[in-house]
Structures are given as structure tokens and as C-alpha cells.
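Hey, can you fold this one?
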Amino acid sequence: MEKVTLTVKGMNCEHCVNKVETALQNQNGVAKVKVNLKKGIAKVKYDETLQTIDRLISEVKAAGYEAEAVK
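Sure. Predicted structure:
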């Protein structure tokens, strides 16, 4: 299992947090998601054989938010 932290821009309420969490949790290979509204981040634990960081970012964008991996 791999872990990645994504910065997520555009979240401003708990509804936003739920939307991002749901978008990420519904992806194949994602084991755990924790979104922090105050910090504007999403921590994702995923199976790297089933999922990629680019696909995770794409799902956040599809939910209506900007995202990028923290290096």
C-alpha cells in the first residue's frame, strides 16, 4: 500500500469534504481517505497496482475541486 497527500483547493464546508472523500473512496484500490478541511488536504492510502496518483487527482477534479500531489 502506498500513501499520498493531495492538496485540495476549493473546499469550504463539510459538504465539500464529503464530496471529495466519496469521490476518492469509490475508486478501485483505495483503502482509506482522510480529508482535512482546515489544511486543505486529502490523505489517501491506496494499492499502487490498482490505482495511480494521476487518477486520484482526476477524480477530485471531476468532483469540482483542484488537486495536486504534495511532493
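The mean pLDDT is 97. Let me know if you want another pass with a different chain boundary.
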